[in-house]
Amino acid sequence: MNGKVYLVGAGPGDPELLTLKALKVLKRADVVLHDELVGAEILAQVPSTARIHNVGKRCEGKSTSQREINSLLIQYALLGLQVVRLKGGDPFIFGRGGEEIQALREAGIEVEVVPGITAALSAAAAIQIPLTYREISSSLVFLTGHHAVGASSDNWPDAIASDVTVVVYMPGRDYLATAQKLRAAGLSAETPCAIVSRVGSHDERAHVTSIGELPSAPRLSAPSLLVVGEVVRFAQHRSLREQFSQFIARNFEASQSELIKTTESGSQEQAQ
Fold first, then answer.
1. 108 with 132, same domain?
2. Which of 170, 159, 161, 230 is nearest to 195 (CA)?
């Protein structure tokens, strides 16, 4: 008798944000194939008798291909095992869950999907941005800055209205290109945006800027995402206090320097 595969969303990384269903499935697993970004605190919920495989995609070093992952899922299920494919965020939001469920169906393997909290929702909660807000944002669009090999990278909307909140997963570090795409879609340079890094971890960071200033924004650590839209004006986060304190300090220093120059100029004129 064949086993069963569960496509489980691990959420943003905080074990307290796992769903009860996800925790229940993990504790019954015979085999767990997990993404690179699934942390030790979540893997600690897996039985000590279970086989655990890191099948994450890495920018550098050895990575497991999607074909290999699909094959492992099928092979373990054919052995009659309870298999968990553990993914960061939600399996069906830029998580390749569709490719895996298709392969499992073609192999005649029973599969169940356990949703998780996707990065857009956890990032919005972390910096207190309502992704929708009456009279400000009535639509929500998820985009990705990363594409499969050979796929077009020019598939962003041609037009984005000012009352839309846009969340860009995996925006990369070419903020200039991202800003140009957003401007080409009709958004103004003054539209606020927020970069949120390592959501749900102890070193979570956020930086608020605008589309016009995005190219000069700091390159925060991956994984990160970009939230764009008027709702970003609601943002609050502990790291933002540091950002704005530095901004105030820089402006104070600049104003003091200008005052000194003005005073010195005045003194020279009086001396003449």
1. no
2. 170
Q: Is the pLDDT of residue 171 over 90?
A: yes
Q: Which residue has the tokens 């100029």?
A: 265
For residue 43, is it within any domain?
Answer: yes
Query: How confident is the model at residue 35, as a pLDDT?
Result: 95
Q: Quick one: tokens of 254? A: 């600049």
Tell me: the pLDDT tens digits for 55-103? 987 655 678 999 999 999 999 999 999 999 999 999 999 999 999 999 9
Structural domain count of the chain: 2
List pLDDT tens digits, range 31-43.
999 999 899 999 9
Q: What's the rounded Cα separation, in Å, for the pair 98 and 110?
A: 14
Residues 207 and 230 in one domain: yes
118 closest CA partner among 96, 91, 99: 91
Domain that holds residue 153: 120-236
Task: Confirm whether 158 is a catalytic residue.
Answer: no
Options 30, 35, 87, 181, the catalytic residue: 35
87 is catalytic: no
Work out whether strand 192-197 and strand 224-228 pair parallel, antiparallel, or are unpaired. antiparallel
